[in-house]
Amino acid sequence: MEERQELFKILRKEFPIHDLETKLNTSAEVVLEAIARSSDLTLRGVRGVIAEAAFKENIVNPLMENGWTDNEIIGDQSYDFDLSDAAGHVKIQVKMQRQKAQRPMLASEANKKIFPNSSHMWVVETQRTRGGIDNSGNATRPYRFREFDIIAVSLHPSTSDWSKFLYTVADWLIPDPIDPIKIFKYQPVPKAPNSDWTDNLVQCAQWFRAGLKKQISK
Q: Is 21 within a domain?
């Protein structure tokens, strides 16, 4: 066993796991240890980045094998992916199912006034990680409708599976009760696909392109 461990150490020096090791001039083990020692807030951000990478690996790459294109995003945009096929572009924002006290958070826990009867649904927080104020004095953290076409919610907190996502059309999301041009920061997510949410991205793209006007159920 000790000989195998020594051999592994030698091979690890010769064969980096990822280009990031060279970029940061450190090992993957050190990066993982840094993440393990980080605060809950930092770890939450890391999970969000992992969700995007998992979406790329498990959802986008298979679509590309079937004629879709993953278009480069230039600049700071309100979406994480710009995918296209023969029918056009679809802009997708990837978010993480919200957790509370290391467990999946329920919609009724997020806002009892707006979601009084949603104890059977999970919740996703749909706002930017960092806040700010624009030149007009408006908060920049909330998303506005039409900034992206589809929201993809990672269900890892409730499934322990990074390949599991639910999707809905962004225009169907619940508006902010104070400012209806903004998307309310909390959105209820069902525990299984329904008429508002699907686990098939292509189907959601079809919903978006059909132009149906509706709002997801609370």
A: no
In what helix (H) or strand (E) does residue 89 lie, and over which residues does it extend? Answer: strand 88-96
Taking the chain (218 residues) in runs of 10, the rounded mean pLDDT of each run is 79 81 87 87 87 97 97 94 97 95 88 81 87 59 95 97 98 96 96 97 98 94
d(Cα 133, Cα 174) in Å, to the nearest integer?
Answer: 23
**Angle between helix 28-36 and helix 40-55 axes, rounded to 10 deg:** 130
The answer to whether the CB of 196 falls within 8 A of the CB of 212 is no
- Evaluate whether 155 touches 166 at the Cβ level (below 8 Å): yes
The torsion angles phi and psi of 90, rounded to 5 degrees, stand at -135, 125
In a domain, 8, yes or no: no
Which strands, in side-by-side order, build the sheet including 88-96?
A: 69-71, 81-85, 88-96, 150-154, 165-169
The answer to the question of residue 73 being in a domain is: yes
Count of domains forming the chain: 1
CA nearest neighbour of 96 among 50, 60, 64, 144: 50
Structural domain span for residue 184:
61-210
The reply to whether the predicted model has a pTM over 0.90 is no
CATH number at residue 84: 3.40.1350
Q: What is the pLDDT of residue 199?
A: 98
